[in-house]
């Protein structure tokens, strides 16, 4: 029997492979046709109220979707081959292409024109992966810049608001759903004063600009003005007070992991039981309150869709601010001018101007698609608003048509706070994260969280204390604790 040469044998094997491949393609196509026909027969045999024409249209659309996915898969394979080819070319010239460079749009200058065109495809293809790499770098860096300093544990329910006194001695105030407001020593974490005058949830707390007086708003439909006298204990720092966050993994927590209110240190601190003044005129929950510049008047925001302006000395209602279509969520006053901003569930926030006693103008800002959870003043003529639509917007009061910056997040935003001197916005989220942005919308950092430190439930509010040497940012949440952070602002801005 004659023996085939090597070339003839290889040619015959290649021919058989091509033949078997073509047969497999025909079999695949026929099987797909049979499957489509079987699906059509099954749909026709089912007891459906859809007309046959509609069912046929659905089958055709599903077929088109499947073909589109097949085309995308094939394009993906081709793109991978081009990536390998490009890397081989650049490797021959002593260059490499990596995701970090592509994410910045940087390629080596020696690459050809066709290579630069291919880089555009690569940037689109690897956008998700490179963004994850950049986020991981920011998280690592944030741990060195944002350090957890102190935890303030003593409330028996979630904490709605946190505030820092403007006068000496500087203390921290928290408002809780457990019907109390607590004042804390920032350095030691010890409870100094407990206010128990409300019979409902305490929703906000603000300190008087010049006196040792606090203003609290409550679910009992009132706002209370009460005086406190505190004596700061001598701080005794320990190594545990300044531990940096070291864990990198995040875990889900159960209720038994939360601080136990039964063992708190607030039970033995001095208690204030009655207010100096009670502001009563709302017909619903008072969700927030704040002092006007000078501290002689106070404004409250309520679920009865109104905000009220009061005279502090007489407790008389000066103005009732109406116009919102739904419940109010927050109110804030300008630090140097007689301006008030109120936010509402009607997706708007309003600016009330009391600078001219004879004219009380109001401007309406419409830019969100869901509840505006807070709106706060910052330097100059800017207002920053946060919303349940997962956006934060920076506005110019001279131009209300559109925001000058928009920050998009992955979770609803609660009560925001702005570091006025450094123009940094702290965003507390429903997903337990706290992120820092600048006024132009650039993300600066995320406060670290681990399995041992950080908030374990929704973060409700934040407050800056720009002059405090130990803690310059405070956060609070549903995990019944407030946390003091040390933010290295110069390093943070330098990284930007």
Task: State the gist of this model.
The chain is α+β, with helices and mostly antiparallel strands and 496 residues long.
Inertia-based shape: globular
Strand content: 25-35%
**Main sheet specs:** 5 strands, mixed
**Spans of at least 5 consecutive residues with low confidence:** 19-30, 96-114, 125-140, 238-258
Task: Give the strand order, joined by hyphens, for the main sheet.
Answer: 2-3-4-5-9
Number of strands: 29
User: Whole-number average pLDDT?
Assistant: 80
Distance between the termini: 80 Å
In which range does the helix fraction lie? 25-40%
Total helices: the number is: 6
- Rg, rounded, reads 31 Å
Structural class: alpha+beta
Explain this structure.
This protein has 496 residues and is an alpha+beta fold. It has 6 helices and 29 strands. The strands form 7 sheets. The protein has a 5-stranded mixed beta sheet with strand order 2-3-4-5-9, with no helix packed on it. A 4-stranded antiparallel beta sheet has the order 1-29-28-27. It is globular. The protein starts with 5 loop residues before the first helix and ends with a helix.
């Amino acid at each position: 029997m004659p023996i085939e040469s090597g070339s003839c044998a290889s040619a015959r094997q290649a021919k058989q492979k091509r033949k078997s491949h073509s047969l497999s393609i025909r079999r695949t196509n026929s099987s797909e046709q049979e499957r489509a026909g079987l699906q059509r027969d099954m749909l026709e045999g089912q007891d459906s109220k859809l007309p046959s024409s509609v069912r046929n249209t659905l089958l055709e659309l599903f077929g088109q979707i499947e073909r589109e996915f097949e085309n995308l898969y094939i394009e993906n394979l081709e793109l991978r081959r081009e990536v390998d080819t490009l890397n081989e070319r650049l490797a021959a010239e002593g260059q490499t292409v990596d995701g970090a460079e592509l994410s910045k749009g940087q390629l080596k200058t020696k690459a050809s024109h066709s290579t630069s065109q291919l880089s555009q495809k690569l940037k689109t293809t690897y956008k998700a992966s490179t963004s994850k790499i950049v986020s991981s770098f920011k998280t690592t860096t944030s741990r060195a810049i944002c350090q957890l300093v102190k935890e303030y544990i003593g409330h028996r329910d979630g904490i709605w608001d946190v505030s820092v006194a403007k006068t000496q001695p500087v203390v921290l105030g928290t408002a809780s759903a457990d019907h109390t407001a607590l004042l804390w020593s920032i350095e030691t974490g010890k409870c100094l004063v407990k206010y128990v005058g409300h019979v409902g949830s305490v929703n906000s707390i603000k300190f008087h600009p010049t006196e040792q007086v606090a203003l609290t708003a409550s679910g009992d439909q009132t706002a209370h003005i009460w005086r406190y006298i505190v004596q700061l204990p001598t701080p005794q720092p320990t190594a545990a007070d300044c531990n940096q966050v070291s864990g990198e993994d995040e875990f889900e927590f159960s209720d038994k992991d939360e601080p136990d209110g039964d063992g708190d240190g607030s039970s033995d601190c001095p208690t204030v039981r009655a207010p100096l003044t009670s502001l009563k005129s709302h017909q619903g929950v008072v969700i927030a309150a704040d002092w006007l510049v000078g501290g002689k008047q106070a404004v409250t925001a309520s679920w009865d869709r109104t905000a009220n302006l009061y005279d502090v000395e007489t407790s008389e209602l000066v103005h009732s601010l109406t116009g919102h279509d739904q419940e109010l969520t927050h109110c804030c006053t300008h630090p140097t001018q007689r301006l008030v901003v109120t936010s509402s569930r009607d997706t708007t926030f309003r600016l009330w101007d009391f600078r001219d006693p004879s004219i009380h103008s109001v401007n309406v800002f419409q830019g969100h698609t869901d509840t505006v959870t807070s709106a706060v003043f910052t330097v100059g003529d800017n207002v920053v608003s946060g919303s349940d639509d997962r956006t934060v917007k920076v506005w110019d009061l001279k131009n209300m048509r559109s925001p000058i910056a928009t920050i998009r997040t992955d979770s609803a935003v609660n009560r925001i706070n702005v570091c006025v001197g450094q123009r940094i916005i702290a965003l507390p989220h429903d997903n337990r994260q706290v992120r820092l942005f600048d006024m132009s919308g650039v993300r600066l950092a995320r406060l670290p969280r681990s399995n041992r430190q950080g908030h374990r439930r929704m973060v409700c509010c934040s407050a800056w204390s720009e002059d405090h040497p130990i803690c310059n940012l405070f956060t609070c949440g549903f995990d019944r604790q407030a946390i003091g952070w040390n933010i290295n602002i110069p390093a943070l801005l330098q990284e930007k």
